[in-house]
Amino acid sequence: MNSTAARGRAGVIGFIVAETSLFAVFVVAYLFYIGKSATGPYPREVLDLPLVGTVCLLSSSITVARATRALAAGRIARTGAWLLVTVVLGLAFLASTAQEWRGLIVGRGLTIGTNLFGSTFYPLVGLHASHVIVGLVMLSLCAAFAWSGALKTVHADRVELVSWYWHFVDGVWIVVFTVVYVVGR
Amino acid sequence: MTPVQTPSIFAPVSTPAFAIRELSFFVLGLTAVIFVIVAGFAIYTLIRFGRRPANPDLEPAQVYGSKQIELAWTVVPFLIVVVLFLVTARYVWGIERRAQPPDALEITLVGNQWWWEVRYPKLGIVTANEIHVPVSDASTPALTFITLQSVDVAHSFWVPQLAGKMDVIPNKTNRVWIEPRRVGTYVGQCAEYCGLQHALMLLVVVVHPKDEFQAWVAAQQTPPAEQGTVTAGRQLFSSLACINCHTVRGTRSNGVFGPDLTHLMSRSTLGAGAARNTPENLRAWVKDPGAFKTGALMPAMKLDDTQLDQLVAYLVTLR
Amino acid sequence: MSSVPTAVPAPHDIAPASESSGVLATLHEWVVTVDHKRLGVMYVVTGLVFLVIGGLEATLMRLQLTLPGLTFVPAETFNRLFTLHGTTMVFLVGIPIIFGFGNYLVPLMIGARDLAFPRLNAFGFWVLLFGGVLLYFSFIGGDGLYGAGSAPAVGWFAYAPLSERAFTPGNATDYWNLSILITGFGTVATAINLIATIATMRAPGMTLGRMPIYVWTMLTVSAMTLLILPPLSAAQIMLLLDRFLGAHYFDTQAGGSAIIWQHFFWFFGHPEVYVLMVPGFGFVSEIIPVFSRKVIFGYASLVAATVAIGAVSFSTWAHHMFTVGMGGTLNSFFAASTMLVAVPTGVKIFNWLGTLYGGKLRFRTPLLFCCAFLFQFLCAGLTGIMLAVAPFDWQLTDSYFVVAHFHFVLVGALLFTIFAALYYWFPKVTGRMLSERLGRWHFWLFVIGFNVTFLTMHIPGFLGMPRRIYTYPADRGWDLLNLVTTAGVPLQAVAVLIFAFNLVYSLRHGEVAGDNPWEAWTLEWATSSPPPAYNFATLPGVTSRRPLWDVQHPDDPDGPHE
Asked: In B153-189, which positions are buried (b, 16+ CB within 10 angstroms) versus exposed (e)?
């Protein structure tokens, strides 16, 4: 099993394990500080379930899987299309996060320094959002290569690895959503 | 100042420290036996098989392992660990679970950078860097329960002859108890790095016979009599920034950032062990605390010689 | 199955050439290299340079503590010295040397051409070097506009809230934070690289069960690294957020917790010391068999013990926190887990003794250091047991006893195994032997000096001397002990100088080594010394854990015995 693909898979799995460990600590810190803020605003008062963003992000896992399958089957144009849809869905998620933050900061006066809720909310959600951004950059590059004709079936393994990263990012969101918007409220 | 003895963990005078020493003898004994056996076997092996071999080019018998031996030397250490754990747990609970008797002395020790505030809430006493407690004996046990708080960073309370360490952490309240069974003076110091002068955050615990302790309490509870000869110094003290940080009970001074000075001269050191408490050192300290303890949070007050003389003359009346 | 190699290109001579244009060209080669062997050498050399720097820091501290009341090193400077000493030794000496050896040896031992991701490998090294330079840059840049510059003084574990801006203004702490964060990324990258290499690039016939124990140790610690370094990074990011954006993760004045920093730090910190030590166990597992002329005793249980240590070490972290007031239940749990991890650790000692027993011992320098390691590590493990007993720890922690304990682990055990490894593999890397005579001088001076310093050091701990103090009072009975402790320092310093001289001298004048000077049996000895850039022209077939034994003993190969 000495192939480049095997190496790549092992590498990305290792990377995802490390990233999981990173997120886990921010999640633990968030859980630890639930209910400990001395002053408001409190989660219950200011957080609404980000349903639209979540649906967009989670469906983008389906679309990126479609893209990978299309590339393996040699259908480059279709791959490009699915990748584009994935990026759009990811951007929609980011937009909803941006809107939420604007409301919290400007509307409710909740900043990172306001209280323990603010201190732990923004870094956790922000860390996830930054990973979404990196993922979108990679997916956009893949889409651009699909469009330009540089992307070929032989690259299917590598695009699959990008999709694994994307699935990871989505998986993290499920945890963050549960901890912040369900448990923490 | 009473001579200091080495604060050895093997010279306990208080119940928790006695318990820890007892436990330590068991552990030291056990580890010594393990060391002798393993090191002994190692030395034997190195000597026996290190001798020049008769036939150096012939490889020795290749022994790949032995299931029985490997099992044995895994199971036996595991059993030792089980025993050790059970013994440990017993002492952990024995010390941590000690209930506070209703007549226990209560002290609140507040860690500051770089000194200790010592409060006796039920007795109305506040002092610094020295803890005074009564001795305990079998007929009339006298335990002291110390509540530990910090106003700034993490410190640690450690007087080896009295008890194991307990950290003094901001935003957390810890408790430790002592039961000294011998009269004397016992030293310790902060045991958690707390910044620049961590090394000079010493602590003294004075254990008194019961009646002597009552006398000390009474003296501490009484503010020192105002003396006419030091009016100048007293006025200087009240009018300068001294009162912003220091309290002298019975006067207007009620600052809380620095040590309570009501009975300043009853303490043996200045600056939590930075210098002996003598009038000369006191004068030098007030002139420039940084000379004894760089970075001490008390600023140099930039007083001239006359002011210093007057002030110190007043301070030495605070017995 | 072995075959005669066809025409083999001459291996690179790794000593720099003498003409000036040659020097520049050689420098360029090294700077752009992605060859695991070169990067391995660069890692180890960097680690050794920082070892000397860290040693100088320690020497200054010991000089001050020789007598009570000395303050020629001001308090602030002393506090910076112990902060940098600890940080340097763990992150800029231990990690680089451990992963540097892994870099060099793992592909050779598994019969691979290079690591899985050579460019990522180079990235890891340069990021480490940058982080190290950044940390030391703090001496100049530390206080920013406010002062002349200063290094961090918060201790290598930077407890909160001392590390918060309220108590430590200026940028010195931020240099600590950022430099370790950056080197951490490099370490994670290297760990990923090693795992991918070991998982996918082993030579045909080399099953996991036939890998050298050393490779198992690198696999284990790489996996551990993936799980523990990110938590440290997370905590450091949180500290950065506190210090720069006004967050309150560890801000006790605003309701934050000082304890949670400790939990995060030690969740990293305890497994980290196993990450440092376990490859040392790997070195010993390779060296002892060769110098006993016997196969390792109990390969399977050694592997199991390695993995068990790795796993159980994750459950022990709060034994660094027995005094924070966690309560009896947690104190008992962590005491139990800490005692438990001693079992597989002890088992390893027995396996090594079992290998020596019945062998024909050749007391060359690598074995000398391994023998000293056995005794030092036995002591270190037993003092570790003492510290695992929570109430005993309540007296011993934060005192010179625990300082002595962990120096026994990191110097007496780890550094000794590193010395052994350097003497053992230097011939492979350079094609020349290190001087045995100088090696013996190095060995004896260091062993004596080390024990004079660190064996003695346990006692002030018993007598109540806390750690991290820039001076101590004269009336506590610690004076003579501190004097003796310092007396061991010059011996160790001279030993290291002799070693440094040995390294440099032997590069040019050492006896030529040949492929397999120690008559060892693992794959790295099946190629030239130094190996060619591509490592192996041909590989012997891998039919057991000791491929070269099988080649030399076709009548009695290892396979059926395993």
From this structure: bbbbbbbbbbbbbbbbbbbbebebbbbbbeebbbbbb
Q: Are C108 and C514 contacting, i.e. CB atoms less than 8 angstroms apart?
A: no
B165 closest CB neighbour out of C394, C469, C476: C394
Look at the block and give the residue holding tokens 């998620």.
A93
Mean pLDDT throughout B192-219?
97
Question: A119 and C256 in contact by Cβ < 8 A?
Answer: yes
Report the number of distinct structural domains present in chain C: 1
Mean pLDDT value across residues B248-275:
93
pLDDT for the residue numbered C141 = 75
Please report the domains of chain A, with CATH numbers, ordered by start residue.
4-183 (1.20.120.80)
Q: Which residues in chain B are closer than 8 Å to C550, comparing Cβ atoms? A: none
Mean pLDDT of C327-335: 97
Q: Whole-model pTM?
A: 0.95
Q: Which residues contact B190 (CB under 8 A, 6 or more apart)?
A: B111, B114, B116, B155, B156, B157, B158, B198, B201, B202, B203, C466
Task: Assess whether chains B and A touch, using the rule of 3 or more C-beta pairs within 8 angstroms.
Answer: no
Residue B180 identity: P
Nearest CA-CA distance, residue C251 and chain A, Å: 10
C324, C371, C464 ranked by CB distance to B46: nearest? C371
pLDDT digit string, tens, across residues C48-89: 999 999 999 999 999 999 999 999 999 999 999 999 999 999
CA C94 – CA C225 distance, rounded (Å): 13
Report yes or no: C533 and C548 within 8 Å, Cβ to Cβ: no
CA distances (Å), origin A74, targets A64, A166, C157: 15, 21, 53
Chain C contact for A2 (CB, 8 A cutoff): yes
Residue C214 contacts residue C173 (beta carbons within 8 Å): no
Q: How far apart are CA C189 and CA A8, in angstroms?
A: 13
Q: Which residues of chain C have a CB within 8 Å of the CB of B8?
A: 462-464, 477
pLDDT at B55: 84
Residues with Cβ within 8 Å of C35's Cβ and at least 6 positions away in sequence, in order, are C114, C118, C533
Q: Is C67 a member of any domain?
A: yes
Which residue(s) pair with B149 in the sheet?
Answer: B110
Chains C and A touch (3+ CB pairs under 8 A): yes
Q: CB of B132 within 8 A of CB of B268?
A: no
Distance of CA C149 to the CA centre of its chain: 30
* Residue C303 confidence (pLDDT) above 60: yes
- The answer to whether B250 contacts chain C (CB < 8 Å) is no
Q: Which residue has the tokens 């938590």?
A: C231
Would you say residue C285 lies in a domain? Answer: yes
Indicate whether C300 belongs to any domain. Answer: yes
The conformational region for residue C255 under phi > 0 = left, psi -120 to 50 = alpha, else beta, is left
A71 alpha-carbon distance from chain centroid: 22
ipTM of the complex: 0.96
pLDDT digits (tens, 9 = 90+) for C179-197: 999 999 999 999 999 999 9
Q: What is the CATH number of the domain that holds C159?
A: 1.20.210.10
Task: Find chain B residues with C-beta within 8 A of C386's C-beta.
Answer: 24, 27-28, 31
Can you list the domains of chain B with their CATH numbers?
A: 1-44+98-221 (2.60.40.420), 228-315 (2.60.40.420)
Backbone angles phi and psi of B252, in degrees to 5: -75, -20
Rg (CA), chain A: 18
Residues of chain C positioned with their CB less than 8 A from the CB of B197: 75
3-state secondary structure B53-121: CCCCCCCCCCCCCCHHHHHHHHHHHHHHHHHHHHHHHHHHHHHHCCCCCCCCEEEEEEEECCEEEEEEC
Give the bridge partners for B105, in sequence order.
B144
Which structure tokens are listed for C49? 């340079």
Q: What is the pLDDT of residues C218-253, one digit of tens each?
A: 999 999 999 999 999 999 999 999 999 999 999 999
